[in-house]
Amino acid sequence: MRQRTMTRIRRTIGLVVVSVVAAMLLSAATAFADTTPADGQYGAVKGEQAGGGGGSLPFTGLDLLALTAVGGVLVAGGVGLRTAARR
């Protein structure tokens, strides 16, 4: 019985660690978006257009794919923790 409990605890801790590392790796990707160091200092806001707008909103830098992936990882981690807690 004690061995089973330790196995569950290790599995749960492993799942939490993997989820946190995955979330950190996904959130760090936007930090490397500049192509050169000068882009960050001298470039205009990415997506900004000179002149009149064409009726569409400017790009704000929000990466919806990464946000969706992080949400999926968090949901999967929650489901995994709940499943592990029930056993």
- Element order: H for helix, E for strand: HHH
Radius of gyration: 21 Å
- Broad structural category: mainly alpha
**Principal-axes shape call:** elongated
Mean pLDDT: 76
Sheet with the most strands, sense and barrel status: none
**In total, how many beta strands?**
0
Per DSSP, the total helix count is: 3
Distance between the termini: 12 Å
| Helix percent band | 55-70%
User: What fraction of the residues are assigned to beta strands by DSSP?
Assistant: under 5%
Low-confidence runs of at least 5 consecutive residues? none
Brief write-up:
The protein is an all-alpha fold and 87 residues long. It has helices spanning 2-28, 37-42, 64-86.
Strand and helix layout:
Elements: H1 2-28, H2 37-42, H3 64-86
Helix pairs in contact: 1-3
Task: Please supply descriptive tags for the structure shown above.
mainly alpha, single chain, 87 residues, 64% helix, elongated
